[in-house]
TrEMBL record:
<keyword id="KW-0067">ATP-binding</keyword>
<dbReference type="GO" id="GO:0005524">
    <property type="term" value="F:ATP binding"/>
</dbReference>
<protein>
    <submittedName>
        <fullName>ABC transporter ATP-binding protein</fullName>
    </submittedName>
</protein>
<dbReference type="GO" id="GO:0016887">
    <property type="term" value="F:ATP hydrolysis activity"/>
</dbReference>
<dbReference type="Pfam" id="PF13732">
    <property type="entry name" value="DrrA1-3_C"/>
</dbReference>
<feature type="domain" description="ABC transporter">
    <location>
        <begin position="4"/>
        <end position="231"/>
    </location>
</feature>
<dbReference type="InterPro" id="IPR003593">
    <property type="entry name" value="AAA+_ATPase"/>
</dbReference>
<dbReference type="InterPro" id="IPR017871">
    <property type="entry name" value="ABC_transporter-like_CS"/>
</dbReference>
<dbReference type="Pfam" id="PF00005">
    <property type="entry name" value="ABC_tran"/>
</dbReference>
<dbReference type="InterPro" id="IPR050763">
    <property type="entry name" value="ABC_transporter_ATP-binding"/>
</dbReference>
<keyword id="KW-0813">Transport</keyword>
<keyword id="KW-0547">Nucleotide-binding</keyword>
<dbReference type="InterPro" id="IPR027417">
    <property type="entry name" value="P-loop_NTPase"/>
</dbReference>
<dbReference type="InterPro" id="IPR025302">
    <property type="entry name" value="DrrA1/2-like_C"/>
</dbReference>
<dbReference type="InterPro" id="IPR003439">
    <property type="entry name" value="ABC_transporter-like_ATP-bd"/>
</dbReference>
Length: 303
């Protein structure tokens, strides 16, 4: 079943079309990336799905229907602009927010304690939010969005301000939620995280849908047919000049990217390589989501 569906959604602010005829769906149990440059319309799209603003046209369905009060309790939202009661203690903050979403008190307390432990915040449970560092505040914000165990979790830039250890902890929690069958919508500018985490993505640019599909499929589609080769010994690199059918060679992350001539296939190159040297890795070189993002935005703005 779809967790979310957008069908022909448009939205303008004072004559400016901010969302232009957008259709997409998010499947239950996937991590769905919402990507796009600054001002592309990502936050507006999230506000539309949460019914904070209304579309000019089109239809939005959440869990197959409209966004009722009961459906709202099944959603968790980490907004772009953070805001918690600064004077409230950590544990009390989480329990209070869970209670607002109708979680029974005892359950809210148990859940809040477990979550604080999972992100290394338990020892700070008696501190006020304002006494925490920026990264810790970010983590408590994240926990605030998930304390009521929502089925659909919407995260706007969940990694901002986090160090690598905390980033990994939050990333692991996101994966854990996906493994439990929950749906996650992740809006981020961190392409490396998006590439690792997301099953599918929607990329907006100036309110238009410019990419939509699985991360693997989009990377494959944008691949230039080149190959990534890693040799056991660096000195073997010189053999590349002996092999026919290679158009271009580029260095890339400790390996070489080989662009074959149109008429040469990958198997022929592989055979030539293994005859001459020990090969550790040989695979299709796929562009990163970051490269595709930049290429797509630049090609659209160049039109
Ligand atoms: N309430 C509003 N009134 C007028 N214009 C608005 C309003 N909200 C958003 N916009 C405009 O809509 C466009 C999209 O903004 P939005 O915040 O959705 O982008 P975004 O993709 O989330 O950007 P960022 O990555 O910078 O957060 C921008 O041009 C913005 O100025």
């Amino acid at each position: 079943m779809h967790a979310l569906e957008f069908e022909g959604i448009s939205k303008s602010f004072a004559e400016k079309n901010v969302i232009r005829d957008i259709s997409f769906s998010v499947e239950q149990g996937e991590i769905f990336g919402l990507l796009g440059p600054n001002g592309a319309g990502k936050t507006t799209l999230i506000r539309l799905l949460l019914d904070i603003i209304k579309p000019d046209s089109g239809e939005i369905r959440i869990f197959g229907g409209s966004l009722s009060a009961a459906a709202k309790d099944r959603i968790g939202y980490l907004p772009e602009e953070r805001g918690l009661y600064r004077k409230t203690k950590l544990l009390d903050t989480l329990v209070y927010l869970a209670r607002l979403k109708n979680v029974p008190l005892k359950e809210a307390q148990t859940k809040a304690e477990a979550l604080l432990k999972s992100l290394d915040l338990y020892e700070h449970r008696g501190k006020k939010v304002e006494e925490l560092s920026k990264g810790m505040q970010q983590k408590i914000q994240f926990l605030s969005a998930v304390v009521h165990e929502p089925e659909l979790i919407i995260l706007d830039e969940p990694f901002s301000g986090l160090d690598p250890v905390s980033t990994k902890a939050v990333k692991d929690k996101i994966l854990e939620y996906r493994n439990e069958g929950k749906t996650v919508i992740l809006s981020t500018h961190m392409m490396e995280q998006a590439q690792k985490l997301c099953d599918r993505i929607l990329m907006l640019n100036k309110g238009e849908r410019v990419l939509y599909g699985t991360v693997a499929g989009i990377r494959k589609e944008h691949g230039k047919n080149s190959l990534l080769v890693e040799f056991a010994e660096k000195r073997s690199l010189s053999i590349l000049h002996e092999i026919p059918g290679i158009r271009k060679i580029t260095w890339r992350e400790g390996a070489v990217e080989i662009l074959p001539e149109e008429s040469t296939n990958a198997q022929a190159i592989l055979q030539e390589l293994v005859r001459r040297a020990e090969i550790l890795r040989f695979e299709q070189a796929l562009p990163s989501l970051n490269e595709i993002f930049i290429e797509t935005v630049e090609s659209v703005s160049g039109e």
